What we know:
The structure is a single chain. The protein is α+β, with helices and mostly antiparallel strands. It has four domains: 222 residues, HUPs (Rossmann fold); 236 residues, glycosyl hydrolase (family 31) (Immunoglobulin-like, Sandwich); 273 residues, Alpha-Beta Barrel (TIM Barrel); 217 residues, Golgi alpha-mannosidase II (Immunoglobulin-like, Sandwich). Helices cover 23% and strands 24% of the residues. It has 24 helices and 56 strands. The strands form eleven sheets. The chain has a ten-stranded mixed β-sheet with strand order 47-48-52-55-54-53-56-51-50-49. Strands 8, 9, 10, 11, 12, 18, 20, 21 and 24 form a nine-stranded antiparallel β-sheet that branches. The chain has a nine-stranded parallel β-sheet with strand order 36-35-34-31-27-26-25-38-37. A hairpin with a 3-residue loop joins β32 and β33. The longest helix has 25 residues.
Amino acid sequence: MEPSTNNNLDQRLEHLNTLPTGFFPSPASPASPASPTSPNTVTHEASTHGKHTHKRRVIVVAYDHSNYGDAMISKAIRLGLIRTSDDIRLLHIVSQSDYRNLFAPMLSATGTSSGIREDVLDSNMANAADSMIYEVINSLRKIGFSHVRSEILRGDPKESITDYCRMSKPAYILTGSRGLGAVKRTVIGSVSSYLTKHCPCPVLICKLDPSEIEARKELDSKKQATFADVLTTTDNAASYRFVEGSIKQTANELEFPLVLNENISYFGKAIHDLIVRVNYETSERINVKIYDKEQNQVQVSDSPLGLVRPPVQNMSGGRRKKNSKNYEFKYTNNPHFGFQIIRKSDNAILFDTTNFPLIFEDQYLEISSHLPETNIYGIGETITKFKRTRNVTTLWPRDAHEKYQNMYGAQPFYIDIRNNGTASGTFLLNAHGMDVVITKDRITYKAIGGVLDFYFFVPNDNKPNSVVQSYTTLVGKPMMPSLWMLGYQNCRYKYPNIGHVEQVVSLHKQHNIPLETQWIDIDYMDAWRDFTFDPVKFPQERMLQFSNSLHANTQKFVVMVDPAIAIDPNYQPYTRGQELNVFIQNSDGSEYQGQVWPGYTAFPDWWHPNITDYWHTLIVDWMNLLKLDGIWIDMNEPSSFCLGSCGSLGEPNPTVSPWLNNITEQLRLHTLQETALNAMPIPEGETRNLLYPKYIINNGAGNLSEKTVAMNARHYGNISHYDIHNLYGHAEGYITREAIKKYNSSTRPFLLSRSTFAGSGQYMGHWTGDIVSSWDDLKMSVADVLNFQMYGISYSGADICGFVGNTTEELCARWQSLGAFYPFSRNHNGEGTISQEPYLWNSTAEATRLALAVRYALLPYFYTLFEESNRLGTGVWRPLIFEYPQFATDFADNDQQFLVGTDILVSPVLTEGATSVSAQFPPGLWYDWYNYGLLNSTNTETTQLDVQITHIPVHIRGGAIVVTKSPKLLVKETYATAFNLIVALDEKHQAYGRLYIDDGHSLEPTLKSNINFIFTNNTLAINGQFGYPDAESLGNITILHGGQDKIAYSKAIIIAKNNIDKAFNTVSINNNHTVVITDGSLSLIQAFSIKFQ
């Protein structure tokens, strides 16, 4: 999309987000007329994870961006129908044809022959609508409506509005008697009568006189109307230049100062003097760091814990050869300072800031790079398509699970795959909140603090998987899980009592469904306080008995621990924390008080030197008491239900921002400057405005302090929460992992966290949070898990069957089939929903048994992949484009299939009522897992696969040797069986595979085997490192013939290392595969070969 050339554009943008005072009237006072709804009307809580807190009304407003809609809102404010305390949803309904007419010309040409794909439309629709009405939302926020947002739905207006109200359960819906839709057709008027009959909540129809519409014309002329107007840029900003002759250079490093061209500030205090330091760290990695000369800006490395410790490694034995780098760094002063990262092998420009300004202020940093038509993956955490489209991604952890908005973690890393398949990576080491804006021709970072500390990854082979390896080498490679962690797991929030949990475990076994680990959410706690037991529902004795019973059956037990500690002078975790002074403080030195499930709470300060003593003692004692196998940490963004430090007992602090400028897209800088002039002044005695910075990122919650710790709260060393908010969950993970290691220093710690940052995968796994039980969220979960593989958090997965809302038998069956292949596989659902254990429906139970049989058969394969992930830094799941980048244009948008490692292709069913699934196959031979049927793909063709309700298509790549086990109900039982081999020959009649063996749990195993399997020239060679003495024997060997005509082996001769030969007969089946049945005498403790005749 090209910038608009409308002559009136500048004039219109001058008023964007700065609509005149009085655009909407002042809200009604508390004494204004009450809502027409009953005092007992349904209200909604500002919470996730299904747990209750203080409530506010949800009011849905059917809004169409017309003058009529604005007049309707104004009238509703005057009449007191909407209040500043309400959760207001401005609801848009856009039909498919209207949306295409309005937005299709603005999208890149990625459509099919029938037009723009639906997934592209969906991913851009919400962003476009938000942009079109942002100044309206901001005008409402300026007069006190702090909880207002837009929602957009595509479909029939009548049904869509009704369905939305059914799901959101508003106090009522406000609609007009007429109005315009998204383009030209009547929307509101045609549906109001339908809503009064079918909507499940009260419907208020606001009728307006023509004079009321006429009176708004001048005000409404100030509104900007199009998405195109919003997508402009800050090209005319003042920037920096370097002084000739000031450059210092060595073989390994380049350094020079920058000075500001013009002393102009936009969103903070302009920093006049900067330093650029370029470090050629390895042949594949370059660090470009731009920071303030005085080093007053808070950096990630300022953390006392050193949670992110990028290693600097010399190239080629410590002496850097002149041409050993894969990249080149270029810089210029024309027209201002800018730099380029160039890949030497093809002279491709990977990052290019030369035509864009650099803005560096104490509370606003902006830098842009040219972005050619390419494929971008990463930048999270958010729910969206795997391939990133033009949008804004905000990095600001918050307690929410909403599509296209910021969520629990911050991952400022992306991979750029060009259409020729070459890949590179970019990582910004900055823990401040930021917006990352992707438009047609650029990517822009807009951070509210810190420095610009970039790392660029240019691997030798230019492959995406190598980029992931380079990245995780920097931030930390994924943890190695224990073998039991690969088993199937179960949980839910709001188990009624321990007896019910015991029954759940028993019923899994009765229905022949594997269950390795049972989890318990915060239900077990006394009044939701950490390290306590509900004396009636989950008494301590029964909990310990339950733990012992699980362990007696070789099963495992994990419970949740939240970071917030209840404030109670009789509660030991609180009093001990006070003694050690380890809680976050207010700016005046008093204790910061939040509100979470147990009520008023204090928050541990993970940066305090006493925190190790405090938290380690709590965790070790707790794990000892319950004999726990792991810890689950939640609510660690951190989440708090007060806005600001809570007041005295009673209502939470009602503080709201008198000014909010929530900017989602890039705007002309003079507009931003004008907007910033209306911002709150810096508080007296402070150097920065932490609560209300002039530039506010596109935080889905609005206020930066909403639903979390206030930005002016203080951590140890006088560090503001504003500066390390993105690191809080990561820091808790680091401290908690060390505590678990103290509990058992020889066993690999098990830790699962909701909030993450770059490098978190070396400490813990991650689940994707409060996912909805819907087909859309089922589909999105594939992209979500793929994202975390590239972030270096291999042990990740989504709540199988969904957490929020009720699942269905079909949805749960399909989800159990997919979830069996999640690296972390767990069914988990929330309060107020139906039970969804897989044994509750026949088809779901059967689908679960079949899919988990595949997973448990593949346990040696999964375990070997996790070892590779831990050693090399690769993902366990891989998107097709990462494994086959040479077909980038074919696989760029495929996030509905995935590879487990390199050899297992999974094609899940992600749509309701499906009887077949469309699956892409890379060129080569692919064998059906279930019947060994052969599919010979000559290109990246799409094939229709039949999928009955209990079936998930799984294929083995030709050229792979996959090690399997005979699946049982428990991991230990499964691993006690012999190792089997599936030798899937390729077109050249060759195959390769690998197996890693150790004891399955030691933190630093000393006895281990790394075994290679190579099939060529009709011989299977087994060699490698044989250091694990107790490896099970080799069982059956199944050879898939690779399409060779009528090949059938009749004999297998074993050639052992001690020259003792042994022959086994074979069984040939359907001329397409041969099975060798051994006698169990072949142990994988030495090298040997098998010759097939």
